[in-house]
Amino acid sequence: MADFLVVQSDFGQADGAVSAMYGVAYQVSEKLTISDLTHDIEPYNIHDASYRLMQTTPYWPKGTVFVSIVDPGVGSNRRSVCVLLETGQYVITPDNGTLTFLKEYVGIKEARQINEATERLPSSGESHTFHGRDIYIYNGARLASQKVSFETLGSELAVDELTTFDLIKPTYSDKKVTGTVDTLDVRFGSLWTNIPLAFFKKWQANYGDSFDVKISYHGTLRYHATVANGRSFAQVGQARGTDLSKDAPLMKRIKGNLTLAIPLIFSSLDRIDTISSAMELRRFGKLDKRTWYMTTPLKKADIIAISIVSLIVLVGLWLILLNQGRFYNPFV
Hints:
Elements: E1 4-9, H1 17-28, E2 33-38, H2 46-56, E3 65-69, E4 80-85, E5 90-94, H3 100-106, E6 108-114, H4 131-144, H5 150-153, E7 154-156, E8 171-172, E9 177-178, E10 181-185, E11 190-193, H6 197-202, E12 210-217, E13 220-228, H7 236-240, H8 250-281, H9 300-323
Parallel strand pairs: 1-2, 1-3, 3-5
Antiparallel strand pairs: 4-5, 4-6, 6-7, 8-9, 10-11, 12-13
């Protein structure tokens, strides 16, 4: 086993959380070689954490230990696990779906459930919200430095019992292939799909051949164009068929705005649900409630504020109609 320890999280690096974890690891063994996979996973985004592990683990030597901390359920009864991959690397992570892509595309050979009460940083028993420091990096460092073996790290757990989320598999026919956009390469403006190159080889597709490409999000068509093999999807606005300029008919502009707004609304609702679930699992709240959110009646000040805002909106709309357009735009 190598002394390589690779860490990813959704902590960011604006505070001392990552540094504190590295300090724990070096207290276990100063001989460790610690590397960052990334700490810029979107908060609570288990899907992206799972994908980045699949993208990275096979390229490291056998025996490398990966620690992944994207943990909306920290402090709850979710399990902490360590798995041995078919390619020889180890992964320590919450059992919350983070292992989905590895299980599907790399393969998991064995799994162990870590006892959170005993296998943790000494004197950290009262800590319930920083398992990344107290459990995951601590045990990752012990495993990477051979202070503990995989077999003794925890009790045996059936691979089929690991928590996973649903993956939509790509499909192939003589005239059509379908798949999902698994992640965004934002830096270079690329979409990474799960459609394998083998599908296009079956079609005997050549460079420059044209394909009818459609991309939908939550049932709404977001992109539709004929694209040449080897060409980027540059004409995104044109391909959407949405003209939002003042020259377009009113109904067309309304329809175009709706095609943009509806997916954003669904995306925002998904994030709200994720964050709310995480707060519930972390037992945020006071008194006998597990959350700070509660219903309170409107006060006089609330009604006045709502009335003023409504009046401002109505005046704004009236001025737009009166002037047949925006009455003032400092950027034009």
